[in-house]
Structures are given as C-alpha cells and as structure tokens.
Records
---
Amino acid sequence: MWVISRYADVATALRDSRLSSRPSRYSVHSSSNRQRFPAAKVADHLLPFLDPPDHTRLRRLLAKVITETLVADFRGRIRQIVNQVLNPLLDRGEMDIVKDFASFLPVFVIAEILGIPNQDRRLLKEWSSWFFYIFSPMPSAEVYQRLNQAILDFSDYLRELVVHRRRRPQHDVISSLIHVRDELDQLGDDELIATCILLFANGEETLVHLIGNGMLALLKNPAQLRMLKNQPTLIKSAVEELLRYDTPAQVVGRTALETMQWHDRLIAAGDPVFLLLGSANRDPGRFVEPDILDITREDNDHLGFGGGRHSCLGAGIARAEAQIAIGALLALTQDIALVDDTLKWRDSIFLRGVDSLPVRFKKAI
Ligand code: HEM
C-alpha cells in the first residue's frame, strides 16, 4: 500500500485518472460480492466508488439536484433544526456537543432535504448510523451484518416513499431525483435508492466531527473563540480553517489502474494508494504556520472536501450546517468551557473525531 502525504502530491493524485475509486479486489464491497451482500450491490451505484464514464453520468445527474440554490433554499430550515435540537439543552448548563447536539443534525437535515416525513426521522437515525460503514473496506462481520440489514430496511422504506412521490411529487429532493433527466438519461430505481443512502452515509459522521473537532479546536484556542463570538461574520472563514486544521475525513483511497511512476518510485497496477488529506492540510510547504489555528486565514485552499472529479458534492450543505451550528453554539451560550481534558478519539484511520465532547456554559442573555 502507498501513502501520499504532501499537499502538492495529494492535490495532483486526486486529479490523476490512473488512480481508480472502484472498491479494490480486497474490499468486501467489490463487484464480485454484489449477489451476496446488499451493501456491495449498493456500492456498485455509489458515486464515490465509480470511475468515468459511469461516474461522469451519475455526477452530472446529481449535480442538477444538489445545487447552490438548493442549499440557499434550505438555510432557513437548517437554522430551525439547529435551534430545535439546541434550545432544550441551553438551560442545562452542561451538554455533550457530540452526543447531545452534533450527532442529530446531519440525519435531520438530510431527511428534511430529501423530504422524509418528520415522524420517521428517529428510525432513520438508527439506520443511518450504520450506512457510514459502507466506506470501510473491511468492517467486522457484526458491523457488516448490521449495515446490510439497515440497507435492506431503508430500501424497503424508500421504495414505498418513491411510489408516493411518483404519484404526488413534492418540493423535495426525492421528487427531484425521480424526475431529474438529461437529454437521454435518468436515474434507475437502484441508483435512486443508492443515492439516498449515499446522501445519509457521506454527510453523517464527517459532519458530526467537523462540529466536534471544530468546537474542540476553538475551546483550546480561547482567543480565536472570543474573536469569532465577537465577530460572527468570520464564521465562513472560520469553518474553512476548522476543516483544514482538524480534517474530519483524513484519508481517501484509490487503486492504481496501471503501473505508474511517482517521483522516484514505481506504483504497480492494482496497488492500493491512500491520499492523506489531513496531512496535506498541515503541509508547511503549502500553508503558513499550518499548526496554528487562524480563523482569518485567507490563503486556505484546503483539501478537506477532497478535490478533482470526486470532490464533495455535499460541501455546500456541510458548510451551511457547520456555519449555522457553530454560530448558534457560540451565540446562545457564554463562558463555554471543556468539562475535562480527557478526550477519547475515534478508533479509525479514515475519520478523525472525538466520540464525546462535554462542555459547561451559561445560557446567553
Ligand atoms: C464536513 C462534512 C463533510 C466532509 C469533510 C466531506 C468530505 C468528503 C470528501 C473528502 C469527499 C471525496 C471522496 C473521494 O475523493 O473519494 C467527499 C465526497 C462526497 N461527499 Fe462529502 N463530506 C462532507 C459532507 C457531505 C454531505 C453533508 C454530503 C451530502 C449531503 C456529502 C456528499 C458527498 C458526495 C455525494 C460525495 C461523492 C462525490 C463523488 O464521488 O463524485 N458530503 N466528501
């Protein structure tokens, strides 16, 4: 396995068409397993696991639905969801930012965007917590069984919803996905279901950790936290800096399609190649004082959302959610501080984040 870690190399590799995104033959999601496991069948239709021309076709269709206008339209609803989750916590004086707050937002927001009825959202949270493991190349047998069951349950649920939306389209993304068309093309039913699963899976854990890591970084840099609280308009550049400083999606995986020269090394066809986004984002060859958190940083072309043809399609949604959530946490509390310094980091090389982030605070008046 190869590991690419410098900014310039990672940025180049993300755009190198000799590096494939298809699950490698070592992965449990490889196409050869598609008859045995629903997860492998779904992976066959998932944007992050496709190469051109399949990727180009599907991305073009999805990009017609997941647009900047969609994000702008949903900002008000995201604010309401953030307030609904946050308000009941404010009188307590203590909360766990990850468990009580951040972990609810991605599911509720994507459910809202897709148009999933309110009463079903708790059920979805349970399924959705397993979807993320579709990005794990070798999950444990127990996790894989749960992932496959969640996919089966969610697929049944969605098939019914799709029948309703076909009959009576609404102003939601499921209806748009059903109707999205190119000149010649549209999403098949399996693609539609895979895409809905993808939207839950991709945004779930990454976003929780952007909010968790982001708040942790601010709490450990109180001058930056004060600056942001006093100048809320800095929230946009602050979120970019938090993505760079403590990157939630640390690694993306690729496989070499052909034998290729990389500097003075030869990467053999079939070799797995890991691109370290987190490392690239701290590269002193690219960023001035990369280990310093500076929420006013201007030259900040970070790779927190990847780059090239697979760059994050949900980046606009993720940015809006993080800006609104972190902005609200700072605006609605005062004297916010960590309860203690013992943090448990997630046991993963792909994702960086804490499982729990207890803080105490006063309700802002
Ligand atoms: C902080 C939150 C997020 C982070 C850090 C993040 C990060 C990433 C990264 C690094 C990739 C590139 C993967 C690769 O190159 O193999 C990616 C792809 C993707 N992300 Fe995100 N993501 C976030 C939130 C979201 C959300 C909320 C959604 C959807 C609502 C989403 C949808 C997607 C999709 C569909 C792709 C695949 C694009 C493609 O393969 O063409 N992401 N994301």
---
Amino acid sequence: MTTIGILGTGRMGVRLAQMFTKVGQPVILGSRDSARSAQIVEGLGQTNLAAGSYEEAASADIILPAMFLRDGMLETLEPLRSRFDGKVYIDISNPFNDTYTDFILPWDTSGAEQIQHRFPKTRVVGAFKNVWWEVFDAPTFGDTVSDVFVVSDDIEAKGAFLKLIANTPFRYIDAGRLANARTIERMTLLSGELGQRYGFFPRMNYKLLGEAKQLAST
Ligand SMILES: NC(=O)c1ccc[n+]([C@@H]2O[C@H](COP(=O)([O-])OP(=O)(O)OC[C@H]3O[C@@H](n4cnc5c(N)ncnc54)[C@H](OP(=O)(O)O)[C@@H]3O)[C@@H](O)[C@H]2O)c1
C-alpha cells in the first residue's frame, strides 16, 4: 500500500496524519525532532502511523511537507531532493507572512508553482490549501461537506492523489492547473480575514454550489 510521508508535526501535519491513517493509509510522520514525532505517534495510537525524521518521511512513496514557506521550507527540503524526485508531492502551503495579513509571494505566482519550480522532478499536486486546521476536527457544517480544491499540471499525479483520499470526509473539486493555486491560496487569505471579521475563525470553509443543467433534448 502507498505510504505517505508527512514532514512537520504542527496543526496540519498531525491532523492530516490522523485523517489518512483513519482511512487505512500508512503514514510516516516526520519531525526535525524525532522524539517529538515519536511522542505524537504514541499519543495517537494508530497502528499504521510510524514516527520518524524528515529523511525517513521523505523516503515514503508520496510526500506531504506540512511547514511554512516563510520558515524556510524550500531550504529545509533541499537536502532531501533526491528522496522525492519523481514522486507525487502533496503541497498544502499558503505563503502567509508572520502576521497572516498578507503573502510573502507576489500575485503572479503561488506556493505550489514555487515548489514545482524549485523541485522540477517532483509531481506537485496542490490540495488542502483552503482547509483551515480546525475544520479537520469536524469537516461537515451541519449537513454540508467541506470542499477541497485540487490543482496540478500532472494528470496522473492528480489521479494518484484522488485514489489516496477515498473515504476521507471531504468533497474534492478538480480545480484545474497548478497556476490556479494562485487563486486558491488567496481564497484562503480572504477566508481567514472573513472568519476573523465574522467570528468563526478558524472554522470556516468554501463550498462550491451549483446545479447540473437539464440538457435540452435534441
Ligand atoms: N494552519 C492552517 O489552517 C493551514 C491551512 C491550510 C494550509 N496550511 C499550510 O500548511 C503548512 C503548515 O501549517 P501549520 O499551520 O501546520 O504550521 P505549524 O502549526 O506552524 O507547523 C509547522 C511545522 O513545521 C515544522 N517546521 C520546520 N521548520 C520549521 C521552522 N523553521 N519553524 C517552525 N516550524 C518548522 C515544525 O514541525 P517539526 O518541528 O515537527 O519539524 C512545525 O510544527 C503551511 O504551509 C500552511 O500554509 C495551513
């Protein structure tokens, strides 16, 4: 079975590790401090969840770095490059600044594109960028299931991702090419601002509404 290597044990890393292991995917949760990942993994008590270093997590079949670009993510990943060349890389990054008021990247690029540019041999799939961390604890709002927008220029990698997420408690929307991450990441910046204004931060999400049109008979 496909192993997912998650690098980083913060809000997103731990929740994604829980979500994937609950649907039966083996996960290696990697940390800068292996003692920290070991403690977290022990606490979660999932048999298909293993603790490790970043090197060990980067050796998994599919990698998912869960750290911030502003914290030097690209530089941290650089020494691991050979371990994830050719693999599907699930990119969840939003290029927030330290105060979460803006992005550290200009409008004509995205975290996803920067990662693909820096690691051209990886197969980047952008996902979960629009999902704030507490939403993982309860992904439905009443009867409404949260959407996850998925972007990639690599159709096969997107397909591999969509297999992985079967039975996870979200609806996945194919949001097209990787450059659409510019919009998705900025949607998250906006939802953060709106959530603060209306008092529901950090439990909010986007839902794409629509009805299939009745096809006219020919
Ligand atoms: N928070 C959200 O709601 C949310 C939503 C969507 C996407 N994202 C994206 O997910 C990624 C992770 O977000 P997060 O909220 O999980 O972050 P976080 O809680 O701050 O955790 C980030 C993790 O990165 C690792 N790390 C590596 N180098 C670091 C450094 N120099 N300083 C601090 N931490 C470092 C740490 O794990 P170890 O110490 O174990 O190595 C840390 O726990 C970001 O790219 C963010 O944009 C977040």
